Amino acid sequence: MNRTKGDEEEYWNSSKFKAFTFDDEDDELSQLKESKRAVNSLRDFVDDDDDDDLERVSWTGEPVGSRTRPGSFQSLSDALSDTPAKSYAPELGRPKGEYRDYSNDWSPSDTVRRLRKGKVLIFLKRTLSKEILFRELEVRQIALRHLIHFLKEIGDQKMLLDLFRFLDRTEELALSHYREHLNIQDPDKRKEFLKTCIGLPFSAEDSAHIQDHYTLLERQIIIEANDRHLESAGQTEIFRKHPRKASILNMPLVTTLFYSCFYHYTEAEGTFSSPVNLKKTFKIPDKQYVLTALAARAKLRAWNDVDALFTTKNWLGYTKKRAPIGFHRVVEILHKNNAPVQILQEYVNLVEDVDTKLNLATKFKCHDVVIDSCRDLKDRQQLLAYRSKVDKGSAEEEKIDALLSSSQIRWKN
């Protein structure tokens, strides 16, 4: 990567890390600030997002779920992704000869003054051999963190790998090697590269993530080739009615599951594109699977599939509706996908909490549910107020009038 002097000046003007001064007499305030900066830098590698609104997943052709939940292998790739805005480090613009004896005399007074002015890491990177630079930084942990951060920002993978080898930081070395897959555009070459990462010295958890990443891409390549053929042949109804907007290659796991639920929902478990196969292969939790499948089938208005998704049968053959995500969320998702009022009312009635049920029914104009809830609550005033929200002369108005005039109900107000 070629960087101009102007590009490099921008790094030091915009970077959140100050240049290290190699001053061993830092006061307590400086140390405190440094500690806070070090803690803040961890945010690039930690995902505290607890939002689980997976029903937002949609097939738009763009990667979905850039921030994923703990347990999803996508989190590793996210942790290694580039920062939103790269900054490039500056060249100091001083001749190398000025520091040609630097390794022999580490801190002459004029050198210290220059170092305190900042930009030291780039200068040292350009003037010292790697061996000398790495050896000196190894005993200066703050400066070492600066250099690692800087190398990640400018994308100098080669020097970063050399540094981790020198420090014998094998897991970070493996992670940096894995990160190189981001620069490989060809899916087959990326898959083969990921295969070389499987045996690297990752933690047990990350090793599983790497294996899953490889397996997912391998499967996406197969699905993509098959679906491209089906789409071009024009003989498959789902592809004719809903042409694909983009390739499935390199998409996150949740997006791949949504795609599978959208285009391949009824396929046998033995096929790579089957949603059930994906669920079992990648150990997708029931809650995440149901949310994604619901979003896909509701988008297609496949209401029978939605019904089957929540219908369970016990050993006596009796059926029952069950929703691991809660029926209140099912109602919200169905409404977002313009489900008919009859469908909405069925699922609103399955909400156990009476107040929640009444609020949802009122919000989505499920009149029968509101009327029945007011009757069950014996809330005459609320029923009377709701009468003004239904159409004049409608069946709902007649039903309300019949309840209000009934002597069988002991109203509480």
TrEMBL record:
Pfam families hit by this protein: Vps16_C
Record field: transmembrane: none
Superkingdom per UniProt: Eukaryota
Domain Vps16 C-terminal: 277-389
InterPro entries documented for this protein: Spe-39, Vps16_C, Vps16_C_sf
Main subcellular localisation: cytoplasm
Region (Disordered): 45-100
Keyword entries, A-Z: Cytoplasmic vesicle, Endosome
GO-annotated cellular components: early endosome; late endosome; vesicle tethering complex
A biological-process GO annotation: vacuolar transport
Gene3D superfamilies cross-referenced by the UniProt entry: Vps16, C-terminal region
Record's subcellular location: Cytoplasmic vesicle; Early endosome; Late endosome
Bias kind Polar residues: ranges: 69-80
Protein name: Spermatogenesis-defective protein 39 homolog
Species of provenance: Aotus nancymaae (Ma's night monkey)
Gene (UniProt): VIPAS39
